[in-house]
Amino acid sequence: MIGKVDLVMWTKNGAQTLPAVLKRISLVIPAEFVGKKIIVDDASTDETTRIAKSFGWQVVPNRGTGISDGANTALQQVTLDYFVSFEQDLLLAQDWWQKITPLMKDPKVAVASGMRFADKPIGVKKMQEYVGRKYRGEAKLSPWLKSRDMSAFTLGKTLDNTIYKTRVIRELGGFPKLQVNAGVDTTLAYEVSEAGYHWIVNYNLQSIHLRKGLKQELNHQYFYGQQLYAIWHKIGDKRPPVTKIGVIRRFVMSPFTGLFMAFQTREPSLIYIHPLIRFYYMKGLLQTTKI
User: 244-265 and 270-286 are packed helices; what angle lies between their axes, rounded to 10 degrees?
Assistant: First the structure.
């Protein structure tokens, strides 16, 4: 084992999921390995801060707004050599601690995490699992795919079930500073790699992303589309080979790819879920600055 770790989380109006999330963290990570428990709250108007304190977490205000500022505010509170970050709607896998922490013994590994999949609707979960398998090299799932290696680079590299070497993240200048509320994880993945370190993902370790249903997923896809330009601008020439025309083409093809995925996963709802997701993503992108 690696010794004690500080735990950090950034929240905003997370009262609905927070009790289950914090309870699971306390069950998965043994108390003897926990240092500080810090929640950076972004002006919540619900019971988030009260719930956090009832579980023994220290609550500090976000010194800015959004995930980028929240993550850096949390980093300022960290005092140990390792820290773990969570998001307020992530139900940690039961065996996360046993499977993730040994990865950090390698001196070149700076960050490690597991996968996470939506709990509902089932079609979104099946699609996420399928995409994970596709980009990890199961060529029969997508024989036409030409950018597998580039797309797989960021697969599973999120901030919601992730352990870091504090020294390395501080050497990088902290978490990437983005004006948008997305892409911090993607940008960090490239910065870690450029610095000569590795971000390891255990693809067999699956946490649960607590979701409300398809409407929430579609709203998120629309949001991601809106943020894409700013993320690409931050990453620069290292970004995946995706263009506006490519996003439109993927939407046009989505009825066929949705049918293909439905057949591969035996989940009929993907026939309409996949085109809807592509549409909302494209809509968000087209309503922002031209690329």
Answer: 170
